[in-house]
Amino acid sequence: MKEWTFIAIIAVVSLATPAAPILIGKLIGPRKPNTLKNATYECGVETVGDTWVQFKVQYYIFALVFLVFDIEVVFLYPWAVAYNQLPLFGVIEGVIFIIILAAALIYAWRKGALEWT
Amino acid sequence: MKEISPEATSDVKSVDAVELLSRKFPGSIKPDDRKGYEGIVVDSSKLPEVATAIRDELGFDLLANLSYVDYPEEGVFEVVYNAYNTAVGGKGLTFRVRTSRDEAEIPSLIGVWPGVDFQEREAWDLMGIRFSGHPDLRRILLWEGFAGHPMRKDWREPFYEEDNKPYGTRWPEGQVQRAEMKTPYGMNVQYPGGFKLEGWEPEGEEALYAGLGTPLGIGPDIHQIKTDQLIVNLGPQHPSTHGVFRMAVTVDGETITRLKPVFGYLHRNHEQIGERNTWLQNMPFTDRLDYFSSLANNLAYAISVEKMMGQEIPERADLLRVLMVELTRIQNHYSAIGFLLNDLGAFFTPVLYALTERELILDLFEATTGSRMMCNYMRFGGLAYDLPSYIGGPAIKEGDRERELDTMKFIKGLVYERLPRATDMLDRYLTNNEVLVNRLKGVGVLPGDRAIAYSATGPVLRASGVPYDLRRADPYSIYNEFDFDVAVRYNGDSYDRYLIRLDEVRQSLRILEQVVPRLEETEGQEYMGGKRSYNHRVPAGDHYGHAENPKGELGFHLVSDGGGNPYRYHVRSPSFINLTALEEMCVGHKVADIIVILGSIDIVLGEVDR
Amino acid sequence: MEDLFIIIYNWLVSLLSGWGVGPVLVDIILGVLGSVLIVAYLLTLALFIIWVERKLVARIQDRIGPNRVGPWGLFQNIADVLKLLTKEIIIPDGADLVPFMLAPMIAVASVFMIWAALPFTRNAVGTNVSIGVLYIVAVSSLSIMAVLMAGWSSNNKYALLGAFRGVAMLVSYEVPMILTLLVPVFLTGSMRVNEIVGAQTIWYVIAMPIAAVIFYIANHAEAGRSPFDMLEAESEIVAGFHIEYSGMAFAMFYLAEFLHAFTISALTATLFFGGWRGPFVEQVPTLGIIYFFIKTFAIYLFNVWARGTLVRLRIDQIMSFCWKFLVPIALILLVLSMLVDKIATGIIPNYLDTTLLGMLPRTGILLLVNLVVGALAFGWIARTGRRERERLESRQIAPVERPAAGQQAK
Fold first, then answer.
1. Smallest CA–CA separation between B254 and chain A, in Å?
2. Measured between CB atoms, which of B232, B235, B253 is closest to A55?
3. Which of B:210-239 have CB within 8 Å of C?
4. Closest-CA residue to B154 (of B39, B275, B66)
5. What is the pTM for the complete model shown?
6. Which of 3.40.50.970, 1.20.58.1610, 3.40.190.80, 2.130.10.10 would CATH assign to domain A2-110?
7. Chain B contacts of A51, Cβ < 8 Å?
8. Residue B70 in 3-state DSSP?
9. Which of the residues in chain C have pLDDT under 50?
10. How far is the C-alpha of B36 from the C-alpha of B79, rounded, in Å?
């Protein structure tokens, strides 16, 4: 429990640390907003069209593949911790799990989900 | 590639061309018989057909230049085309079209030579000549709301004083007056009638974006999922556009689907200034075109005017010109390679090493001409100064002590040791770098025939497999006395455009190795031919002179009425015309690639915007 | 000799207890002290490593680097911070204010929080949580959130492009990173970071060099340094996701970037290079902190070196490298080394011994597996590279048939 207290404390401290200079900067820095200064930067040209558009789908496919992998690999961690106590059969079971993961990778690869176009 | 007909030899005389074309287009062709003029006059109704014949049957496949002249007394605009043959080189064919000043309209040649795209827009912008059939005839160098066409002879700018320099005394009574009080226009800027600055939105933007497709246009995705495309402006205030250059692009994710270059942010109407100046006064102005290679610009202008004057040049002047121009080419290519690496994302390391060598070359320029970049060194008939006897400066250090060095020793050190070593160093560290090869190979491919169609010149053309170098194709100065090869690469991608610069540096060094001994032989000889004069009179006539600049063919279309000022002073700037091919090279590539492609074309905005 | 940190800790505990503070409160007070110590120390360090980096890159580039403020320009960064402090923090029109201001804080916080689980010496570790390694993965991915928040909330197209491509890259490289992070975990049989260090009588990099290299590359990408600086890509999208930030808000992203680069070096040093381990560290545990930083700085120099010399990869090349090379290699390596290791456990007696001599057989066998996988990997990537070049060359245009150059000269 003591360990998690520390994490809670450092989370607060490390959020407060960058917040402080930003706040100080806000306080002592000048604040003279004007339309031109606050305009979106686009190399000195007025931006055209909406920025928040339906963006290209390729990015989401990568996110999905990542999600699958990330979660599956996290499941491997407890197994890796217990690795030294496991019999050979237990390791083979884990390996089968990894092979399924690899099969997913190959599937995504063949489907062209890993092509960045 | 198309067939080159047997008639297409290097010495197709205008007369032969006239014969051949008159046979084909009876009544539409006549030779230009004005004194000092060459080429043929084409009837504007037959222009595209004649141009096609010139391209396909006479073999003049590269339309180097489109210029436009105003003759108010005759009430005509004249559009002058200069076409060249890339296969055999030699003199080109000049053909002209005349149109009335009141309804200036001629057919566009964009279907024959896509490379006229920007040049026709420029003619519309500055002279007000309409090109029927041009798909995108917008202003190009000036802003959309500009009133009038400033290259017309009857156009008067604010603060207008007189037509030609040298101006008379501004205050003959000794009474100081501000020029703007004298001018009838008074204000600094002219606006069209009914214009209000407040709330003004640039009109051209809509036309520009319309050419890019609607901002929220739906583009099909490879996965058949509909996504929005985004219009992004790269530039003018962008770290990698080599100046104030803007590309409006439509991106689908990261892939470019359309691209429109926008320029003119640095426009100063160089040509109008040039027509006000005397012939010699233009020399320092040419420095400001491609400010990386001012000496090469000087040479191109000098040889064009000398040709019209019939001026002879002493040997030493020619040697020094070649020395300076080839050193200019070397330093330009070094910086081009360095900045290309910057565009690729290297954290300034290669460019700093490249600039180190460049500084040494600039030291020589400074010692000789008095300036590192704006050299203003050449004169009609020779040079302003000879080489100095010694050279000094912070770059030539021994320990912490600055010292002075014999100039010839310095040049020899550069040519025989320092520069070959630096070239090999760049080659060794960059050429086979895995990341660099993968970023450059197959990016921005421009096939040879497209490069010719787009009027690309210089390294861009030669990297596409077309060995067209004016130093060989239409020799000027004393280049035909030197032994060197025309560098050529065949893939037309960014990697080849990188490699060809290294090749050209090596060829330039080869020329320099032949120049240096002859320089020693001619030491002390005259470097200025003819009479020194501030006010040259150039015989009436029309001439298109060109030279192989580091970035491509720099041409000057000059018309003289026999007076002390150019009647017409048109600059064919290589960077400007090489950009015509930019969209074709970029479409389908990633955002990261267009920066690299732009870097591999190597543009300078002082020259693009003029 | 007792560890200096233990002495101070015990003294503080007894001092606070002497004042009649309850044990829970003592924990909290010491926790606050410890975290402030870590954060303050990191901030000081950041000023130093930014100076080191600027000097080093300058030397790589044949320049002098900062040399005006203070001796050898040491205080240049302090001057920079002061300057940024007096600059206006501009909030662009249409920005989503809350995520816009939160993003720089999260970016910095995620780096600080990694250090909570990194042991400086045998005893001096912020928190030795039982799932230390997972904790590190979790908090370091917070920085991805920061990138996305900054890029999306800025209402700027460059920021959006930078954030999207950046996030795509960051999440992708997370996969090989956590795959290779399994290696020290299964070798030690614990997720406690300090136990992983404690078990490295022989550094894991010697047993599993390929895993260490993949881990370092993936982390290098996570830090977004050249050649993986997709997020910022100065020459393409100007400044990428933090383009609209100014003043101190920008400084925080800058700080986070440099600290992250240093942190990944510290992580690699901890997990594969034996962290605080070194000669005489058993006798004088405080020495550990010195060893730890020597190793970290040595690895950090690679980072700077890469930044000073390499050009940026393109986003599709980066993604291919991750998914089509690093991930498969990491998977194969993991499977092979686990199987071989387990089989060897059954055959060789005292295989899991952690003394220097006792670790030799395990290290040797794993090294062999690594060398085989490494050779395969290099063969594969060489072949793919060759094929890619052939593909590019086959697309090349045929040479234009023309007379030889210079034919008409003279």
1. 8
2. B253
3. 230, 232, 238-239
4. B275
5. 0.85
6. 1.20.58.1610
7. 230
8. strand
9. 402-410
10. 17
